[in-house]
Every structure is written in structure tokens, then in C-alpha cells.
Amino acid sequence: MARTIFSIAWGLLCLFVAILVKPLVAQQEQQPLQAAKARPNILFILTDDQDLHMDSLSYMPNLKRHLIERGSTFTNHYCTVALCCPSRVSLWTGKAAHNTNVTDLHPPWGGYPKFVSQGFNEDYLPVWLQAAGYNTYYVGKLFNAHTVDNYHSPHAAGWTGSDFLLDPFTYRYLNATFQRNHDKPVNYEGSYSTDVVVEKAHGFLDDAIHALDEKDEPFFLTVAPIAPHSDVIIRRKIISGQVSNQSATQAPPIPADRHKHLFEDVVVPRNPNFNPDTPGGASWIAKLPQQDEENVEYNDDWYRNRLRTLQVVDEMVESLISRLSEAGILENTYIFYSTDNGYSIGQHRRQPGKQCAFEEDINVPLIVRGPGIPQGLQRDLVTTHTDLAPTFLSLANAAPPSKFELDGQAIPLSPFQPASNGNVDAVPASVLDWPQEHVNVEMWGIIMSEGKYGMVQYPNHTYKALRIVGRTYNLLYTIWCSNEHELYDMTSDPYQLVNLYNTNEAPEESVSIVHANISEASCTLIQSLPLGNTTSESPNCNAAGFEKASARSPLVHRLDALLMVLKTCVGRQCTHPWESLFPSGKVRSLTDALDSKYDDFFANGVDRVQFTQCERGYIAESEGPMWDGTQAFPMYEEMAYR
Ligand SMILES: *[C@@H]1O[C@H](CO)[C@@H](O)[C@H](O)[C@H]1NC(C)=O
Ligand SMILES: *[C@@H]1O[C@H](CO)[C@@H](O)[C@H](O)[C@H]1NC(C)=O
Ligand SMILES: *[C@@H]1O[C@H](CO)[C@@H](O)[C@H](O)[C@H]1NC(C)=O
Ligand SMILES: *[C@@H]1O[C@H](CO)[C@@H](O)[C@H](O)[C@H]1NC(C)=O
Ligand SMILES: *[C@@H]1O[C@H](CO)[C@@H](O)[C@H](O)[C@H]1NC(C)=O
Ligand SMILES: *[C@@H]1O[C@H](CO)[C@@H](O)[C@H](O)[C@H]1NC(C)=O
């Protein structure tokens, strides 16, 4: 009931905001974002494995009241690699995982040692913010394989004050080990990890406010609790690359005593893709058994415990905002709320876990409140974690060294203003100019699952995926290292139940017909493009059948070409990939690219994304042909079309 009222209120609020947009534009022009002082403070709350698609935000009333209703929510925000450590490294460096080569949790493929050996400890966000005069603070989990043995070789750079959770105790809710500044690690047996994080966060906030008062130095404070991650016992102290399902036990997250009794009747939302009767997806996902009652009950309990652990975070949102308000600096502080990657429980029959390119794993919360940011607004521009470092830099008027290429771009936090710091180049002039409709999602190696029915490792599950959201299309396209393909039309199939790609279809075989109800927009898209051999007569959008896509489909050719550029993109190529294919700039979106005059170019001119072997990490030789720019749409042809 309360939620119904909330959603009605929310709907009205959105409508109201929509009606107000025009007058607001004028008002905002008179009151630009610089209403924030030149150097605003930034508070970043980063949770661990928090879902957007299992409704976790609905159980956080303070988050709703202080951030969602007082700030803007970016509904199409994505991580680019759905695994803690690689995702965090991409977030802190502004680089795609294929450019950090931190692709996993542990060496040699990932973890803190890999972050250091790749040279990022000298060159990542906090270092740049410090150089720009910010005091930087961090409390909680930074990376994986950041351990009681390696925390000082070297210390994580760039923090004015830090208090890190360290492996192998990072995920012990009741036996955490923290390591402050350059001190020795301290064990907190018996204390509740997130309560300790909150206390330490307040300590750093006090320091930050003091430095602001005394020396006029702004701050960047990150609070990164482990909630709602599972409770993990890591058995091997030395985190080597020899990970097996014996090296860690992943149990349900443990709530604080005061929250243990909450949400007793709550269960994982029974969306159509929850433990479905028909298996879906490719590869190992298609082979998962349906979960029995006992398994489902165990997973529901897991879910309730996640919501309970988030209550401490929700309390913290309230207490940190109160402190900012008390200090009189709330109006000059940006507050960001997000998580490293999403999470899934039971969708597509999966046990608790992440790492796939399904929406549950990659589409994550991003809520921003601060000076000049519209209140209660939902924004639908496609943004990713690699955009966060550029966004923070833009707010702080800071920059990396010129040789350092960021793969993301600053998010226009208000639809009404060119840039938050008056720097027009930093942000597209308006949302209409936001070039990004794509997300390049990557994964390498082993996909793990958690809990007593999980604890399985699925090796050889490297993939490249493309999530693309435009006005008339909303698609997920995945290519696994087995060369299996998946294509989901998320307008008609938001739960990703019907794989439209017919992997088994030999080019000359007759096409299969899929029976599904599809929306008019996607029907128009799919029917108007021969996805395979067009055997049917003229497109009928009320028909309950259409052809499956295949390697021969013009749409797939476009998606392949885009992914081809993205899989090794660097810098501007990652945000403006069509420019690589069409250097003249004539094609700037999938819509433009779908023009039939380019059919031949896409069908025959560009190599296809494919793998020759499944690897544990980013072994370039096994990832097929690479984009080198020589296949760009021929200039002369383009001239001819003008
Ligand atoms: C807590 O961690 C310490 C090591 O830091 C260990 O010695 C102790 O046995 C642990 N206690 C529990 C209850 O697991
Ligand atoms: C994990 O361990 C179990 C034994 O506990 C074993 O049967 C299973 O094959 C292992 N699974 C993997 C490698 O994922
Ligand atoms: C499509 O929708 C109609 C009613 O809207 C329903 O009767 C029919 O069963 C649906 N078909 C499929 C394949 O879902
Ligand atoms: C398309 O299908 C028709 C009829 O099934 C067949 O005659 C034709 O050869 C096919 N064309 C291609 C290009 O596969
Ligand atoms: C994973 O792939 C590698 C290389 O293709 C192969 O040697 C290995 O046998 C595969 N392992 C499994 C468990 O499929
Ligand atoms: C990524 O790191 C791995 C492990 O060190 C290495 O084998 C691989 O060559 C690197 N990949 C690239 C593209 O540099």
C-alpha cells in the first residue's frame, strides 16, 4: 500500500517535473550550477553488489528521502564489468577493463597487486584530486586481494586519510580487519563491520570539515561498506591465482542485531525470469536446473539478509547528511550513491551471484544530489562507471596528466546546464548531444556462484557484450568465448527470456520463427530489417512470430561492427565509437547506421568479433581480429552518398 502511494506520488512528481522543465530551463540559466562554490565537496557512497532490479532501493527510506527525492536518479547507469575488483579499478581510473587489464579478483589477472603493477597507484582519481587541492578520504573496501600482507607494498596512494578493509577479512561482517593510514592492520572481532565503517566515515568527515573551515580546502570522501555482499570466509591467506571453490565460502550476508527481525515476509521479486520453467541464456546458464522449494527458500533468506545489511547504510545516509547540514555545507556538497556491480538471485535460475551481462548484474543505482541538480528527476541518458572519474574531475575542476586517456566522459548532471564548473568543453551542451547510447560490457575467466547451492565455478566464460538503448531500440548482444551469441530485444522482452540469435543456424538453413508478443517499436525494428532470410511477406507487427536473428542479419552486422570497435577502444573511441567506423561523422548512432545504404559495408567490410580460445584473462591473441581503423567506411563512398 505504502509503495503504491509512493509510486503514484512518484509518477505525479515526475509529471510535475516534466511540466516544469521548460520554465526551469529559464530559471536555471539565471541560476547556473556555479551556485555551487568553485570547488564543491563530494561525498561518494559506494556499496558492494547492490541490486537495482530486485528492488533494494525500496527498502531504504532515508536514501529515498534525502537522495532520490532531493536529487536525480540515472536509470540507465551501468557498470562495464560486473565483478567487484575490475569494476572498481575501471571506476577509479576512468578506463575500460580491457585498458586496465585488471580483469579479475586475484593476481595474475587482477586484484590490488595487479592495479599496482599496471602503474595505476601513481595515476588514479584520488591522486588527481589531491593535485587539484582536494583532501581525499576513503573508508571501507577499496579492491580485492588488498591484504594484511601487501597493504604496505606500496600503500594505496592518493588518500589524505584512509581506513581500508583488508583481505582475507574484508567480507567478515563480524570479524573485519581495518588498516588506517600507514598504521598496522587492526582486527575488529565482534564489532559490526558497517557500524565501524560509519563511525570511521564520521571521523573523516569531521577532519574534512575542519580542513575546510581552517584552510578552505574542499574534500572528496568515499564510504565503501561491504553491504550487501555475502559474508565470505577466505581460506587462503596468500591470495594466489590458484582460486578454487575450496578457497572461499560465501554465506548469506549478516545483518546487525538491531535489523535481524526485519522483512520477515519479503521474498525475491517473482519477475518472469525468476527461476523460470524454461531455461534461458547461453552456455552454462541454459543448463542450470530449476531450483527446488528448499533452494528458493534459502535464496529468499539470503535476499532478506541483504536488505537488512543495507539498513545500516540507510541510517548512515541520514547521519552523514545531518552532519553536512549542521556544518552548513550541504548546499555545496555533491552526494553520489552507487555500487560496484549489480546482483542476481534466481533470475535465469542462477544461484546468488553476478558477472553476467544480464540487466540484474550490470544496471546499477546512480543517484546524485547537489547544487543545481534537479530534485526528484529521473534521467535516462546511458552512463557507465567509466564516466564517474571524469564526472568527479569535472566537478573538482581537476584533470589527469595529458598522457592519461580516460575512456569515459563527464556526465551532464543537470539537463539544463552545459557544465557544472562553467567548463563548456567538459560536458556536452545538452542531453541531446550526449553521444552515448551504448555500454561495452566485458568479462574474463571464471563465473562464480555463491551460497550452499552455488559454490560452483564456471570456467571459460569470457564474453564481450553490447548494451544499447536508443529511442526505438533497447538491446543486449553478447558474444561468448565459445562463440555462442545472445540477442535480447528488451522492449518486448525486458526480462531477457527469448534469445533472438539463432547460433545454430547455418547460413543456408531456413530460418526459425520465434513466437512472442513484441512491442510495435521493436517489431518495426525487427521486421523492417531482414534479420535472416526474409521468408515472410510484409512486416505485420501484430503477428506473433518473427524470424530469429543470425550471423546474416543486417542488424547483427551493425552490432558486430560496433562491438568490434569497442572491444579495444581507447579514449574518445569508447564514447564515440561510430566515428571510428565513419570518420566523416555522418553516422552517430545505431539509427543512422541502420540506413540500408550501409548494408554492404556492414555485411562485408568489417571483421566479426570472435574468439579462438577461452582464456582466464585478457589474452589478446585469443580474441580474434582487432579493429585497427583500416576498415572504416571508405571515404570515397561516403562522399558519393552526400
Ligand atoms: C577473527 O579474525 C582473527 C584474525 O584476524 C582470528 O584470529 C580469529 O580467530 C577470528 N575470529 C573468528 C570468530 O572467526
Ligand atoms: C567444487 O567442489 C565440489 C566439492 O565440494 C566439487 O564436486 C565440484 O566439482 C567443484 N566445482 C567446481 C570446480 O566448480
Ligand atoms: C500474445 O498476446 C495475446 C493477448 O494479448 C495472447 O493471447 C497470446 O497468447 C500472446 N502470445 C504469446 C506467444 O505470448
Ligand atoms: C531464402 O529462403 C527461400 C525460401 O525458403 C530460398 O529459396 C532462398 O534461397 C533463401 N535465400 C537465402 C539468401 O538464403
Ligand atoms: C577452457 O578452455 C581452455 C582453452 O580453450 C581449454 O584448454 C580447457 O580445457 C577449457 N576448460 C574447461 C573446463 O572447459
Ligand atoms: C593482461 O595480463 C595478463 C596477465 O599478466 C597478461 O598475460 C596479458 O598479456 C595482458 N594482456 C594484455 C592485452 O596486455
TrEMBL record:
<dbReference type="GO" id="GO:0005539">
    <property type="term" value="F:glycosaminoglycan binding"/>
</dbReference>
<protein>
    <recommendedName>
        <fullName>Arylsulfatase</fullName>
        <ecNumber>3.1.6.1</ecNumber>
    </recommendedName>
</protein>
<dbReference type="InterPro" id="IPR012083">
    <property type="entry name" value="Arylsulfatase"/>
</dbReference>
<feature type="signal peptide">
    <location>
        <begin position="1"/>
        <end position="26"/>
    </location>
</feature>
<dbReference type="Pfam" id="PF00884">
    <property type="entry name" value="Sulfatase"/>
</dbReference>
<dbReference type="InterPro" id="IPR000917">
    <property type="entry name" value="Sulfatase_N"/>
</dbReference>
<keyword id="KW-0378">Hydrolase</keyword>
<keyword id="KW-0732">Signal</keyword>
<dbReference type="InterPro" id="IPR017850">
    <property type="entry name" value="Alkaline_phosphatase_core_sf"/>
</dbReference>
<dbReference type="InterPro" id="IPR024607">
    <property type="entry name" value="Sulfatase_CS"/>
</dbReference>
<feature type="domain" description="Sulfatase N-terminal">
    <location>
        <begin position="40"/>
        <end position="397"/>
    </location>
</feature>
<dbReference type="GO" id="GO:0004065">
    <property type="term" value="F:arylsulfatase activity"/>
</dbReference>
<keyword id="KW-0325">Glycoprotein</keyword>
<dbReference type="GO" id="GO:0018958">
    <property type="term" value="P:phenol-containing compound metabolic process"/>
</dbReference>
<feature type="modified residue" description="3-oxoalanine (Cys)">
    <location>
        <position position="84"/>
    </location>
</feature>
<comment type="similarity">
    <text>Belongs to the sulfatase family.</text>
</comment>
<dbReference type="GO" id="GO:0008449">
    <property type="term" value="F:N-acetylglucosamine-6-sulfatase activity"/>
</dbReference>
